[in-house]
Every structure is written in C-alpha cells, then in structure tokens.
Design a protein that fits this description.
Strand order of the largest sheet: 1-2
Oligomer: single chain
Number of strands: 2
Length: 505
C-alpha cells in the first residue's frame, strides 16, 4: 500500500503545526518552511496525478481498518485532478504572501497550510463524515484567514461568513446522520451500493437527506440563492487569501459531482439523478446574477468576486447536463477559472498598492508606476476569464458549448455563457481603461512592485496559456475522468474489495 496518497493531507498538517509553533520566530524561517512545503506538495500532486492517469483507483485505509468500517482515502482521476489544481494555486498564493505581507501576528502561513489540509482532505476522503470534518477544518482556517489584518469591513464579512457556514454545517450533520440512520454506513461507496437497493418506504427520507446535501454544497459553491455572502467576503480578504479562496467554491462543485454521480447517480434506482431537475435552473440563474453583478461592481475586487460567481454558474450548468462531454469540459473549465481568478486577485492587489489612495475603486486616478507591466497582465487575465481565444477560457467555454448542441438546454446555455463572456469583457474593459488609459498625467508617488510578487502573479497567470498549449493531453485526461465519474462501479468495487495489510476487518 503506497503512503503517497496520505501526503497531501499529512504534509499541510505537519507544516501548519510547525508554522504555528514558529510564529513570531523570524519571517525568513517561516516563509522558507512554508514555501518549501508548498513546492513539495506540488511535486506530490504531480506524482498522484500521474498515478491516477492509469485509471486504477487506489484506496488507502487509515489505521489499516478495512472499509466500510475504517477511514479511507480514495485516489481516482477526479480527486488527483482537484488536489493538483489546489496545490498549484496554493504554491503561488503562498509565494505572493511571502513576498508582500509583513506582520508577526498574522500567522498567515500556518493558517494557509491548515486550509490546505481541509481542502485536500475533502477531495481525497471516501466517506461522508470525514467530508464533513474536512469542511469544518477548512472553514475554521478560512474564518481566521478572512479577518487577517482586522478592520470593520473584514469583521462584518467574517461574521456573515461564519453564521451562514455554521448553518450549513448543521444541515450537513443532519443529512449525514439521516443517511447513516437509514443505510447504516458513512462510506460513500458502501452507501452508493445500499441506496441502489433501498426499500421503497425509506426512499423519501433518503431523498430528503440528499436534497439537504444540495443546500449545503450549494452554499459552499455560492449557488443561487446562497451566493450573496461571497462577493463581500472575497473582496474583503487579503490578496493571497482571496486567491486561495478561488478553490473554495470549487469544493462545493466537486462535492455535487462526487455525491450525485456516486450515491445518487444513474445507478441509484428510485433516487437516480435526484437533483437534476433543480440543478439546471439554479445554475442558469447563478450565471445570470453573476453577469449583473460584474457589470454593477464599483471596485476591482468586487468585480473579480462576481467573475467567480459566473464561473460557478457555468460549472453547475456543465454538471446539470450530466453527460461525459459536459463533465469533461466542466473540469477543464474548473482548472482554468480557479487559476485565472486567483491570478486576478493578485494582479488587482498589485494595482491597488500602486494607486495614490491605495484603493481599487473604478475611477480615474494618477498613472501607475508600472502601468505597462500591470496593464499587460490585466489584459491577458481579462481575455482569458472572458473566454477570448486563444487562451484556456475560450477552450473551456467552447468545449462546454459543444456538449449542448440541441434543444432548450443548448439555447439557454449558449445564450447565457456567451452573455457572460460579453459582460465580463465589457466590465473588465471599463475598469482596465480607467486604470491604465484614462489617467491623469501625474504618476502616483508610490513604490513599484518588486520582482517576487510580480513573478508569483505571473506564474499563476501563465497557467492559462499553458492549459491551452497542452490542451490535448489535459482534455484526454478530463475525458477519461468524466467516464470514470459516470461509471461508479469501479470506484465502489475498489473501495469495498480493498483488503488491509494487517487483516483488520
């Protein structure tokens, strides 16, 4: 049994504890430990990605207790993909944090690694209770990260964030307890097998629990009508934290994809495709409200936050189509939107730091000391996030549109996705021209950004041409990933037939 699967969970845990113990002991040491650990996580994620690409599903039984009784980590194509997306994002966010944030009381690096512990655990866990535990771990870390630096705006946003997510956690626990009471298991593979053969009298109760999951995951994903907390929270957070938060909504999207293809998928008997009638309209309304928000935003951070909402609506629409082609396009687009929105948060922070008043409000001001460099970075990010060729946003949206070519689904999807792209490029053109062209002749008397934070933002931005350049092998991987996701029999067999080394039951 390879222990490599456990490292995306154990490495951030160990690093986070070490960094919290080292808090206040010297920036050079804590930053070095944090960045080296983040780099190691990228290498481990690449190894796991390569391992999963073979199509073999690997199971890691914690404490050598066999499923369905013990805690299991499961590595399939989807979990390996999500861990890699997270690791790359985290590496550049931590790099940016190490080169821009100076305050001994922040404990920023330690909290970022504890956030990674929860996120990677959520992607790898094979049972619902540990999915709940991982949600709580990442939420505790994100609460602390959100209010880093203090201020009324962050405190207000943090309060809303805490209250809503505590309500979501309560619903999650009720849903998990209900399913355990009916099926007698928390292991997702075992639960999938039991839900498929559920007695008719238990189906309504299990359906109610399944719909509660949709509320919880919808809240995490920022789906309508549970999205209103996101723009304020993300725009209030510091830049590296906001960049890391770009993966948080994707945890909700991942959870919907995992639970509703494995437990309530095509093979779930009476409860097959439980949420499909709900998911399609909610996805389209989420996308439409994101379009309105991005046009109405009055500062750059809020604008990027509504771009995240547009990406969530687009991803949910892909899940709602529920075909292999749509799922493949959805997860390609997921990697693109996560990385480019993370890069935008970092670029916006660099712009804000060079403005005379330190604000990102979309209004005319003095010229920036590095207006050419920052303008080019903003231009590339804007083209990519709006879905313009030849960058990854265009490829992702094109694949998604090609997956729906007939009927009302195609009409609505094509209309709203293209409208979202038009609104994004319109809004970003307005803000970009205001920041870089319609300026006064005076150059702001502020410091230029040093090479390190610029390189961190550029590194994350470089993922968008890279995704387009190596599109063929990546799309081949997401195609295979979608097929594996829609045929959960291999996942169920791999988990339930897993044997332990020591022979524990």
């Amino acid at each position: 049994m390879s222990h490599l699967i456990a490292l995306p969970v154990l490495l951030p845990l160990i690093t986070g504890v070490i960094l919290l113990l080292l808090a206040g002991k010297g920036f050079v040491l804590t930053r070095t430990v944090s960045l080296v650990s983040a780099g190691l996580l990228v290498i481990i994620s690449l190894l796991l990605f390569y391992t999963a690409s073979s199509g073999v599903i690997q199971v890691y039984a914690m404490g050598d207790w066999a499923p369905p009784f013990g805690i299991v980590l499961v590595l399939d194509r989807l979990s390996a993909f999500m861990v890699l997306v997270t690791s790359v994002l985290a590496f550049f966010a931590i790099w940016y944090a190490a080169s821009t944030m100076d305050h001994p009381a922040y404990n920023l690096n330690g909290l970022l690694h504890l956030l990674l512990l929860g996120v990677n655990g959520a992607f790898l866990t094979g049972d619902l209770f540990n999915l709940f535990v991982c949600f709580e771990v990442l939420l505790l870390a994100s609460y602390a990260l959100l209010v880093q630096g203090g201020g009324q705006e962050r405190a207000r946003a943090g309060l809303h964030y805490v209250v809503l997510n505590l309500a979501g956690s309560s619903l999650f626990l009720i849903a998990v307890a209900t399913l355990y009471g009916i099926t007698g298991t928390l292991n997702m593979a075992d639960m999938a097998a039991k839900v498929a053969n559920l007695p008719a009298q238990d189906a309504p109760i299990v359906a109610a629990a399944g719909l509660l999951f949709m509320v919880v995951f919808g809240l995490k994903a920022a789906m309508v009508p549970l999205y209103f907390w996101l723009p304020r929270a993300y725009s209030a957070a510091s830049a590296p934290v906001a960049a890391m938060f770009a993966i948080m909504t994707k945890i909700g999207v991942y959870s919907i994809a995992r639970v509703y293809t494995l437990i309530f998928g095509d093979h779930a008997g009476e409860l097959a495709n439980l949420i499909q009638p709900w998911l399609w309209p909610l996805a389209l309304v989420t996308l439409a409200l994101g379009v309105i928000g991005v046009l109405a935003a009055r500062n750059l951070r809020m604008q990027v936050s509504y771009l995240v909402i547009i990406s969530v609506g687009t991803l949910l629409a892909g899940l709602a189509l529920n075909t292999a082609e749509a799922l493949s396009a959805t997860f390609y687009y997921l990697a693109h939107s996560t990385w480019v929105c993370g890069a935008l948060y970092l670029i916006v922070d660099l712009i804000r730091r060079q403005r005379q008043d330190g604000s990102d409000a979309i209004r005319t001001g003095p010229s920036l000391p590095q207006s050419t460099t920052l303008g080019l970075m903003f231009f590339v990010a804007a083209l990519s996030v709006a879905g313009m060729p030849p960058l990854s946003g265009f490829v992702g949206k094109l694949l998604l549109l090609q997956s729906a070519t007939t009927g009302y689904a195609a009409i609505w999807l094509w209309s709203l996705v293209l409208l979202g792209g038009l609104a994004s490029i319109t809004a970003l053109s307005r803000s970009g021209s205001t920041f870089f062209w319609r300026t006064t002749e005076v150059v702001a008397n502020t410091q230029k950004a040093s090479l390190l934070p610029l390189a961190a933002a550029l590194g994350l931005l470089a993922t968008t041409p890279a995704l387009a350049l190596w599109g063929e092998p990546i799309i081949a991987y997401t195609d295979a990933m979608a097929e594996q996701l829609l045929n959960p029999g291999q996942y169920i067999d791999s988990v339930l037939r897993h044997t332990t080394v020591g022979g524990n039951p």
